[in-house]
């Protein structure tokens, strides 16, 4: 298995070909958040094509139905064209389903995880925290937290904590957090204004902060559960200004992303780094790595600090603890 032949323009097909020795994933279960648009669709399709049983999250059954069509079409195409997958034919039917949850509501995350675990009580090999919002006007979530922090970090923190027992019981034990190069913009996390960000709100700062939280979350999961329990975590920057739905919040962002689109990665090129993060063995991608263009890259200096990562972890546990199961609470409180 190698990522050396992969580059910024590698697609999911090339990532699957490069990591062919990890395939098929026929006994693996994967959960991808936010696969109703953008990078999540291609990520879910690639892993389903590789044989995994894939569950994706959606905010409604209607958006899930539309996404399922797209994911199925892309996965079928990959199975017919990627040589390592063609060699595995005949393929068993694709195993893709969805669970409805809204990461901006802690109660909804808990209900969604309960629905997922009652349907799939088996171990969860790969959790991909992909869903995200960008550039939103100042908005508070159902629980009263600034929306970038709520969706990009806190909802995923609760989801991950609830699913941690299932991930730790699995063979692969991998958690991938979609961060961004925007994690480098804050020089520090401002804990005084982290939850509501009411003082001089700037959407890009709120996004950058939430993406720094994603790296801290992955690093702290690694510190707590790697040596003791074999968990491996990877943070990912998929690429710059990829034309997905991420720019939907403002006409200005849509225009800027449109102008940049001839020079940016396609969606499958963006998703390839996530596919590598999900499939690579630890000898290729060490746990707690940060990937850009399918390769290990240093994070910002701020993201390497342990003190804010621990402080964020403790704060997040406090904010979600009423939604945790006793088993999850015991794990994340240690
Ligand atoms: N595109 C880029 O250039 C870029 C660059 C760096 C990092 N990233 C990161 O990559 C990840 C994927 O981004 P993308 O570009 O694929 O974005 P996208 O096309 O907007 O897709 C985002 C996904 O997240 C879901 N989502 C949004 N709010 C949610 C909520 N409250 N609860 C549950 N799901 C929610 C969306 O569901 P709905 O369809 O229901 O809204 C959608 O499925 C994000 O974490 C983003 O920060 C993207």
Automatic annotation (TrEMBL):
Gene3D superfamilies per the UniProt record, alphabetical: NAD(P)-binding Rossmann-like Domain
Any GO molecular function: oxidoreductase activity
Coiled coil: none
Keywords of this entry: NADP, Oxidoreductase
The family this protein is said to belong to: Belongs to the short-chain dehydrogenases/reductases (SDR) family.
Entries under PANTHER family matching the protein: RETINOL DEHYDROGENASE, WW DOMAIN-CONTAINING OXIDOREDUCTASE
Name of the protein this chain belongs to: Retinol dehydrogenase 11
């Amino acid at each position: 298995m190698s990522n050396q032949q992969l580059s910024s323009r590698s697609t999911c097909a090339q990532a699957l070909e490069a990591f062919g020795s990890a395939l098929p994933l026929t006994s693996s279960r994967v959960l991808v958040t936010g696969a109703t648009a953008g990078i999540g669709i291609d990520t879910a399709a690639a892993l389903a094509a590789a044989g995994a049983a894939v569950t994706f999250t959606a905010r409604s059954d209607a958006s899930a139905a539309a996404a399922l069509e797209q994911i199925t079409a892309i996965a079928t195409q990959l199975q017919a064209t990627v040589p390592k997958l063609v060699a595995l034919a005949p393929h068993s039917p694709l195993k893709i389903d969805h669970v409805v949850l809204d990461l901006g509501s802690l109660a909804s995350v808990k209900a969604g995880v309960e629905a997922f675990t009652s349907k799939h009580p088996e171990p969860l090999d790969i959790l991909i925290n992909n869903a995200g919002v960008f550039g939103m006007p100042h908005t508070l979530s159902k629980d009263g937290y600034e929306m970038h922090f709520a969706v990009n970090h806190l909802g995923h923190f609760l989801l991950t904590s609830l699913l941690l027992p299932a991930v730790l019981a699995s063979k692969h034990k991998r958690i991938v957090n979609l961060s961004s190069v925007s994690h480098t913009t804050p020089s520090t996390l401002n804990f005084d204004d982290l939850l509501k960000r009411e003082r001089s709100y700037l959407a890009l700062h709120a996004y950058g902060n939430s993406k720094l939280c994603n790296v801290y979350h992955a690093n702290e999961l690694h510190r707590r559960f790697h040596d003791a329990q074999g968990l491996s975590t990877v943070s990912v920057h998929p690429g710059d200004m990829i034309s997905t739905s991420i720019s939907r919040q403002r006409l200005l962002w849509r225009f800027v992303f449109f102008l940049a689109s001839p020079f940016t990665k396609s969606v499958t090129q963006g998703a390839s780094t996530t596919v590598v993060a999900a499939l690579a063995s630890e000898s290729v991608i060490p746990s707690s790595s940060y990937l850009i263009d399918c390769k290990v890259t240093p994070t910002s200096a701020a993201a390497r600090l342990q003190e804010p990562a621990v402080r964020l972890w403790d704060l997040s546990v406090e904010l979600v603890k009423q939604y945790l199961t006793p088993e999850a609470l015991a794990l994340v409180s240690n």
